Amino acid sequence: MQARSIAFLAPVLMFVGCAKSRTPASGASSLETGATASAKTGNPKPDLTATLPLVLVADVDLPGKAARFDYQDFDVATGNLIIAHMNDASVVVVKATDGSVVKEIPGIPTARGVVVASDVGRIFVTSSPNKVVILSETTFAEIARVDTGAGPDGIGWDAKDDIVGVSDQHDGAASLLRESGTGARVQVPLGIETGNIVYDPTRGAFWITVVRSSPPDQLVAIDPVAAKVTMSLPLPGCASAHGLRIHPDGNSAFVACEGNSKLLRVDLVGSAHSVEVADTGADPDVMAIDPGLGWLYVAAESGDLTVFDLRKPGLVRLGTAHPGDASHTVAVDPATHRVFFPLMKGKAGTPVLRIMKPGSS
Predict the structure, then answer these.
(1) Bridge partners of 299?
(2) Which of 44, 154, 164, 312 is deepest in the core (most CB within 10 A)?
(3) Maximum CA pair distance of the chain?
(4) 231, exposed or middle or buried, with CB in 10 Å at 0-12, 13-18, 19+?
(5) How many CA atoms lie within 13 A of 322 on its CB side?
(6) pLDDT single digits (tens) 40-58
(7) Are 297 and 321 in contact (CB under 8 A)?
(8) How far is CA 340 from CA 5, 329, 347, in A?
(9) What is the Cα–Cα distance from 106 to 292, expressed in whole angstroms?
(10) Regions in the chain scoring below 50 on pLDDT
(11) Cβ(122)–Cβ(163) below 8 Å
(12) Which DSSP letter does residue 20 get?
């Protein structure tokens, strides 16, 4: 484990209204404000009351090569942040309080999806070419490596039924791993490619984004016990559905569309299942929700971050930021509202964890 250094950074100024883009103070990044996304068209409309700075708290050195990171998951029970260092074949565990490195776990090729299951004391990580690596939540020792389909990507946890849901991206399918990951595996075919997978406790189902051979893409619900598709919702206006999050109230889902840089809000209640659309940064990927603030963070491969207000209907954009080059992955500590961006290269050209927070928190 390499030595850790922390660079504490100056807070940003607050910009109000529709002023032209300004250059942030040295070492800081601010959210551009004054835009509300039209739910139906994605066209911005002025909102002169919007003020939303992000304060750059610290850059903390991370171990490993200057290579791509992927998904993260916040462990509420331990206060740790689990980060997949995808192209360094490792997982990095840090303390969310200050970013200090707790453990680097090597030997996990193409680590991508990460989910913490504190009720069984396990961490699940997808790994190439077709594995889930199961780690102890407390010691980080490896418990098992189990088979999935080809190119596993996103991963979710059904605590009620002790089932792990895996997006078999290259198979266009979902794998369901019983008995906390070490039991029987059942694969559910869905399309030509799949993206993220999330468990919905309200409905007792996994939701997964699916790319079809002919449009539109779909948002699909799977009964984890029966291993059957229970609902397939079309996603008009979405090309290459990938990222996925469920609203804290369970009434809607958010889908990030990589192919045309859109965010969709899909109504999960009733029979209409209306879909609303807004613009994001180029090639949106990982999303994170701060339930206390009611904010949805949408990170993109372009490094551009878009923040939406979940307290309002439709898709109301609070602002945008550029936390760092290729900052396509984001995580949130719901207690402190701090936001985490693992970056391939900091100022020294080595990996850093960029920690930010809303200016009001």
Answers:
(1) 305
(2) 164
(3) 57
(4) middle
(5) 10
(6) 434 333 332 343 578 899 9
(7) no
(8) 16, 8, 17
(9) 34
(10) 1-51
(11) no
(12) P
